[in-house]
Amino acid sequence: MKALDQPIRVGDIVDALGGELRGDPDTPLNQLASLEQAQSGSISFIAGAQYKAALAATKASVVIMVAEYANLHDGPVIITVDPYLYFARLTQWWKKHVQGLQAHLAERIAPSATIHPTAHVADTATIGAGAVIDAYARIGEHTQIGAQSYIGIHASVGHDSYIAPLVSIMNECRVGNFTRIHSGSVIGADGFGYAPENKRWVKIEQLGGVLIGDHVEIGANTCVDRGALEDTVIGDGVKLDNLIQIAHNVHVGDDTAMASCVGISGSTHIGKRCIIGGAVGMAGHLEIVDDVVVMAATNVTRSISKPGFYSGIVPFDEANAWRKNAAMFRQLSHMRDRIRALEKQVSNLTTNSTDKTHD
């Protein structure tokens, strides 16, 4: 990352984020860095014992750590119970500080932006070059709309949100507060709905919208389709990675996270605090309860009614061994029938032996 031209005092960080500072509060900082890449002026963190060697060799001016490591660093330290979480909050604070320093360089509304006369854009919002804010759309306070993004008719984005360049938020879709949507994502494209007629397909118009909650983050090139009649719903605190497909009428519960390349079919409801691994596929019209973890590449074909860990992918192996296992996998049904027949024979033999003993 680029170093700041105007350093920040470590004391200002502790004043904003808390923690116990041991050392000079006036220590200047101009960069966040890993322990290995840190230089004078950097602030870093140690998240576990496996990084003690890196801590001993680091050139960081300040390190965030738990109390038991405090004597392992000669310079100032910030003591906290969870250094990784502290560093996460520091990245947010740092970015806002840098954006504040750069705010005077940006125009609030770019000359090439198009804002419909009926749209409402808050006085503190910024609209990038070539962006379009369509009729009756609403943009909240301190929200940024990136270059060439589109906010549709009767669509809305709440306050303190960030819409990256080249995002489309289609008609009648609503995005909450403190939400981030990255480039290439489309919110509110038509769901995949068709009725068969004489070996052809008749389109079902998708008349619902999309409702996205607060503190949501949606990665690049992710699609959330609009509902057929009711809205597709993304709950508060949901985190979606890049390249995810959320089909029409899906509900994703609060604080659920999905890794890249997940596909959720229509009308499936996913509970709160679930974790969905990369490349998971879910069939439509399923019910997934709260606190479910689905391992990567699992194909979920039925509802999950009990919290826990679920997996359904064959692990990789050396190619020849995998081929042998795959061949046996195709014979499982036949092998099952043979085992049942053998069990029946053993049972008959046991019964006959018992009868002869009694005789």
UniProtKB/TrEMBL annotation:
Belongs to the transferase hexapeptide repeat family. LpxD subfamily. Pathway: Bacterial outer membrane biogenesis; LPS lipid A biosynthesis. The active site is at H248 (proton acceptor). It comes from Saezia sanguinis. Keywords: Acyltransferase, Coiled coil, Lipid A biosynthesis, Lipid biosynthesis, Lipid metabolism, Repeat, Transferase. It is an enzyme of class 2 (transferase). CDD domains: LbH_LpxD. InterPro entries: LpxD, Trimer_LpxA-like_sf, UDP_GlcNAc_AcTrfase_non-rep. Residues 27-93 form the UDP-3-O-[3-hydroxymyristoyl] glucosamine N-acyltransferase non-repeat region domain. GO terms for cellular component: membrane. The gene is lpxD. This is UDP-3-O-acylglucosamine N-acyltransferase. GO terms for biological process: lipid A biosynthetic process. It catalyses: a UDP-3-O-[(3R)-3-hydroxyacyl]-alpha-D-glucosamine + a (3R)-hydroxyacyl-[ACP] = a UDP-2-N,3-O-bis[(3R)-3-hydroxyacyl]-alpha-D-glucosamine + holo-[ACP] + H(+). GO terms for molecular function: N-acyltransferase activity; UDP-3-O-[(3R)-3-hydroxyacyl]-glucosamine N-acyltransferase activity. Residues 325-352 form a coiled coil.
